[in-house]
Amino acid sequence: MAFEFPIRVYWEDTDASGRVFHVNYLKFFERARTEWLRSLGIAQQNLREQTGGIFVVTSAQLEYLRQSRLDDQLIVTAKLQSAGRASLTIEQQALRINPEDPSQEPELICTGFIRIGWVNGTTMRPTRIPNHILEQFS
Amino acid sequence: MAFEFPIRVYWEDTDASGRVFHVNYLKFFERARTEWLRSLGIAQQNLREQTGGIFVVTSAQLEYLRQSRLDDQLIVTAKLQSAGRASLTIEQQALRINPEDPSQEPELICTGFIRIGWVNGTTMRPTRIPNHILEQFS
Amino acid sequence: MAFEFPIRVYWEDTDASGRVFHVNYLKFFERARTEWLRSLGIAQQNLREQTGGIFVVTSAQLEYLRQSRLDDQLIVTAKLQSAGRASLTIEQQALRINPEDPSQEPELICTGFIRIGWVNGTTMRPTRIPNHILEQFS
Amino acid sequence: MAFEFPIRVYWEDTDASGRVFHVNYLKFFERARTEWLRSLGIAQQNLREQTGGIFVVTSAQLEYLRQSRLDDQLIVTAKLQSAGRASLTIEQQALRINPEDPSQEPELICTGFIRIGWVNGTTMRPTRIPNHILEQFS
User: Fold this and answer.
1) Which residues make Cβ contacts (< 8 Å) with residue D50, sequence separation at least 6?
2) How confident is the model over B58-74, as pLDDT tens digits?
3) Residues of D in contact with B31 (CB under 8 A)
4) Do the Cβ atoms of D118 and D87 come closer than 8 Å?
5) How many CB pairs under 8 A join C and D?
6) Rounded CA separation C133/C43 (Å)
7) I need a surface site. Which of A6, A78, A94, D113 has the fewest CB within 10 A?
C-alpha cells in the first residue's frame, strides 16, 4: 500500500504549453515524500536539529506518460521500494482524478524512482541512517 | 543610470496563459539586484560569512503593464531609489526587447519598488548596514 | 470574514537563508485566491473555456513582517477589498500557526494587496468582468 | 563536443539546506537544452507557430554527485546522445567552476539523460520530428 497525498494544480505549476511543467512533478514527489515521512513520525526540520542529519536526493528517474493541467486534482503516492544502510529508494506516482467522474480509476501521469541518502547536514557526507528512523519503515 | 541585466524567458518562467507567470518578475528582480550588488563588489554569500548579515526583502510593490512570452529577451534594471540606515529601496524595471527589431526602444513590462533590509543572518533582527557596503552606493 | 486556506512549507519554498523565499508568498497568495474563487463557484480553466476571459494580476503590494520556515503550517487568507468594472483588489495575509501551541493566535508573516484584472485570454485586453462572476462577490 | 551554457546560482535556486534544491538542476538542464536548440537555429516558440509541434520531456534520469551553492557559477552542457524518429536523448551535465581558481577543472555536480519527444502541440500526440529539425543535429 502506497501513501497517498492530494495535490491541486495551480497556475505556478503550468507552462506555456498549457500543461504542468515537467520539472514540477519532481516538486510534487518531494511534497508527497515529506508528508509520507511526517506520517511515519519523521519531521525533517526537527530531525536536523536533533541528529544533525538530513535526507538529500541522490538520484531520480522520471517517466512522463500523460498530461495534467490547471485545476486538475492529482494524487501523489510514495512507497518504500528498498532500504540500504545510508539510502532509501522511494517509488512514486502522480495520478490524475477524472474531473467529470471522480469515481473512475485515476489516470497515471508520471512515475518516479527517487533515491534519498542520509547525510551529515554540515559536511554533506553520507552516514548510516539512524536506527530509530529505519525502524519506521518496517 | 540604472544597472542593466539581460534575462531570457524559458519554459519554467511561463504559465498556462502563454505568458510569463506574474510571480516570476519578482525572481527576475532578485537576480538583477544580486548582479547589481555583485557589480558593486558585494557578493552576498561572502558577506554573510564575513559579517553574519544578509539582505532580506521587507516590502515589494509591483505594477504589471504588458506581457512577455517564451523566448523573449528582457532587460532587467536596478537603481538605488533611497538609502536608510538599515534598509535600501531599489527601483526596478523589466523591459522587453522587440525580437523583430532589437534597435527599437524596449517595451516596459513590469516595474517594482523593492525595499531590502539588512539583518543579522541568525537572529533575523534589523541592523545598521555596514559602512563599507553603504559606501558602494555613493 | 476572510477565506482561509492552509499551506504547508516544503523544501521547494525555502532558500539558503533557511526561511521561505520572499517570492513564494506571492505563489501562496495565488493558490489561496484560486481556492477562494473556486469556493465561490469560479473555476478559472472552465471560465476561460466558456467566456474566453481570464484574471491576470495587474499590481501587487507585499509587506514582509516575520519569517516562516520548513515544515511550518501557514493559513493564507483572501478577502475582497474593492471591486471595479474590470478589476478586483484582494487583501491577503499569510499567518503562521505556532507549532508548539496551535491554539495560540497565528502570527502575521506577510500581507498583500493584489489587484486582478479581467482580460480577453487571447488579446489580453481589459474587459468588463461578466455579471455572473461579479455577483458571486456580493 | 558538448554545448556549454553558463548559469549562475541565485537565491531562488537554493533551499534551506544551503544548497541548490535538487529539482532546480532539471530547470538548468531545460535552459541549456533551449539555448543549445537555439544555437542550432531551433527557436521553440517560432517552431510551434510554424509547425504546430513542440518538444516535450518524456523521461529524465538524474544523478546528484556533489553540491552547489548561492553565487556559484555553473557550466551546464547538452549533447545529443541518440536520435530516433520521434524522440531525442540528450546527455547533460552541471559543472561547478572553482571560485578560488577558475582555471581548475570544473567539478561535476549533476548529470542527466533527458529524452524529449516531438508532439503535436494541440493533441499532444507523438509525431515524426520534421526533417529540417533532425538535419540540424548531424
Assistant:
1) none
2) 999 999 999 999 999 99
3) 8, 10, 12
4) yes
5) 31
6) 11
7) A6
| Mean pLDDT value across chain B | 94
Give dist(CA D125, CA C41) in Å, integer: 33
Q: Beta strands of C3-52 (E only): which ranges? A: 3-8
Distance from CA of C53 to the nearest CA of B (A): 11
Domain spanning D3-137: CATH superfamily: Hotdog Thioesterase (3.10.129.10)
Q: Grid coordinates representing D114?
A: 533527458
Averaged pLDDT, A70-89 = 96
Provide the pLDDT for residue B121: 86
Inter-chain residue contact A26 with D26, CB threshold 8 Å: yes
Output Rg (C-alpha) for chain A, integer angstroms: 16
**Is the predicted pLDDT of residue C3 greater than 80, yes or no?**
yes
Active-site residue flag, D72: no
Query: Which whole number is the average pLDDT over A100-112?
Result: 96
Contact yes or no for D90/D116 (Cβ under 8 A): yes
Contacts of B12 in chain D (CB under 8 A): 27, 30-31
Active site residue: A15, A71, A72, A101, which one?
Answer: A15
Give residue A134's region: left, alpha or beta (phi > 0; psi -120 to 50): alpha
User: Taking the domains of chain B in order of start, what are their residue ranges?
Assistant: 3-137
> Nearest by CB to C12, which of D17, D18, D21?
D21
d(CA B82, CA A70): 41
- Residues of C with a known catalytic role: 15
Interface ipTM above 0.85? yes
- Supply the pLDDT for residue A31: 98
pLDDT in tens, D55-93: 999 999 999 999 999 999 999 999 999 999 999 999 999
Contacts of A14 in chain B (CB under 8 A): 15-16
CA A71-A72-A75 angle, to 5 degrees, is 135
- In angstroms, the CA A30 to CA A78 distance is 9
Q: Is there a contact between D60 and A58 if contact means CB atoms under 8 Å apart? A: no
For residue A95, give Cα distances in angstroms to A13, A23, A107, D56: 15, 16, 5, 19
In angstroms, the separation between the Cα of residue A29 and the nearest Cα of chain D is 10
Contact (CB<8Å) D23/A19? no
